[in-house]
């Protein structure tokens, strides 16, 4: 099972709303026991594209976030971004740019009044699997 701490989910939601109408982005850090995955901390990053339909992560921020994640003894669980105007599912561009089939891809949709957050695995053939998770 995948668990995401409520405070971290709320940080993603706040970041997405603050950066609206642009997509927000960041990393998911935590622990993977092999059986369960715990998303314990998010590392928000700057969308250098400042766009509502795609994102690029600032390389210097990425480096600092990974260094901080390691110092906090967390693993790179995955990344996340928002979809301001579209559903919480990987776009064709998201699938094309999913280079690591071992990490999770989180997408928060602000398309409707109630935000929708989903986690996905995307394999090397670009097949998408929606994963179950719990907010704790």
From TrEMBL:
One of its GO terms (molecular function) is metalloexopeptidase activity. Residues 2-136 form the MPN domain. Its EC number is 3.4.17.-. SUPFAM superfamilies: JAB1/MPN domain. This is CysO-cysteine peptidase. Signal peptide: none annotated. It is an enzyme of class 3 (hydrolase). Keywords: Carboxypeptidase, Hydrolase, Metal-binding, Metalloprotease, Protease, Zinc. CDD domains: MPN_like. It comes from the Bacteria. GO terms for biological process: proteolysis. It holds the Pfam family Prok-JAB. SMART domains: JAB_MPN. The keyword Repeat does not apply.
């Amino acid at each position: 099972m995948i668990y995401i701490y409520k405070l971290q989910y709320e940080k993603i939601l706040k970041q997405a709303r603050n950066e609206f109408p642009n997509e927000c982005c960041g990393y998911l850090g935590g622990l993977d026991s092999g059986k369960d995955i715990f998303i314990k901390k998010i590392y928000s990053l700057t969308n250098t594209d400042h766009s509502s339909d795609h994102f690029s992560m600032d390389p210097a921020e990425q480096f600092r976030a990974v260094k901080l994640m390691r110092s906090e003894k967390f693993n790179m669980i995955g990344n996340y971004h928002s979809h301001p105007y579209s559903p919480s599912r990987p776009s064709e561009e998201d699938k094309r740019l999913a280079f690591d089939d071992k990490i999770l891809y989180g997408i928060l949709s602000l398309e409707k009044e109630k935000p929708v957050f989903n986690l996905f695995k995307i394999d090397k053939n670009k097949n998408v699997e929606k994963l179950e998770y719990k907010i704790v």
